[in-house]
Amino acid sequence: MNKPSNAITPMVHGLYKLTLKPSVNLAIQTKPVFGANVTLHSDIIEHASFIANPDSVIGWLDLGGLAYLCVEEGIQFNQDETAPPFLPSQFLHCDGGILRVNTPTRFYPIAKTSSEALKHGAFYFTPM
């Protein structure tokens, strides 16, 4: 007979939040916008959640690349100052200015406009 277990095992990948640096010029469109540091593809805000594969276009970045993006824990109950920061390159990459995910990832958009994305963050996400 199997003995019941009360142990809870945390997920290897948790929930993360993608935010943008405050000085970023952000656009939300279906193609790259001239003069914007970051252009998020407008399709990503159309749904409550979606799954992006490594060949999906999340958006476009100018020459600054991933430096405009910040990744933090999605739900922050207690700030652990000793925890190492997350690097955007752990989850995303930019090739030829096109922003894509490294592995299949579920996204939960937070903002519907560029001003909301700059203020509250662009989306929550979790690698699958």
How is this structure best summarized?
The protein is built from 1 helix and 10 strands. The chain is mostly beta strands. The chain has a 5-stranded antiparallel β-sheet with strand order 4-9-10-1-6. A 5-stranded mixed β-sheet has the order 2-3-5-8-7, covered by helices on one side.
Short descriptors:
globular; 5-stranded antiparallel β-sheet; single chain; 1 helix; mainly beta; about 5% helix; about 130 residues
Task: Characterize the structure shown.
- The chain is mainly beta and 128 residues long.
- The protein is built from 1 helix and 10 strands; from the N terminus they run E-E-E-E-E-E-E-E-E-H-E.
- The strands form 2 sheets. A 5-stranded antiparallel β-sheet has the order 4-9-10-1-6.
- A hairpin with a 2-residue loop joins strand 7 and strand 8.
- 24% of the residues are buried.
- The model has no long low-confidence stretch (mean pLDDT 88).
